[in-house]
Amino acid sequence: MGRKNWKEVSDYYRRSLAETAIFRYKTIFGDRLTARTPDAQVAESYTRYYALNKMTKLGMPDSYRVEM
Asked: Is residue 25 within 8 Å of residue 48, measured between CB atoms?
């Protein structure tokens, strides 16, 4: 079957992307929430993910096709 084929069949890349996202989140914001109540923790998580997505978007280069 081969390793490359196995990764494509098992959607391994999705796991890799998820692990990378969680690693970036924890590296930037830490692995603990500071809010005490569950509602406040949800709000804190959403705020952090919004900020992380915004930072990621700002760092992405503009892609365009070059015709030769």
From this structure: yes
Residue 66 lies inside a defined structural domain of this protein: no
Number of domains in the chain: 1
Tell whether 16 is covered by a domain: yes
Domain that holds residue 10: 3-59
Residue from 21, 15, 7 nearest 52 by CA: 21
Condensed to tens digits (0 to 9), the pLDDT of residues 11-55 reads 888 888 889 889 989 999 999 999 999 999 999 999 999 999 998
3-state secondary structure of 50: helix
pTM for this prediction? 0.66
- Amino acid sitting at position 45: S
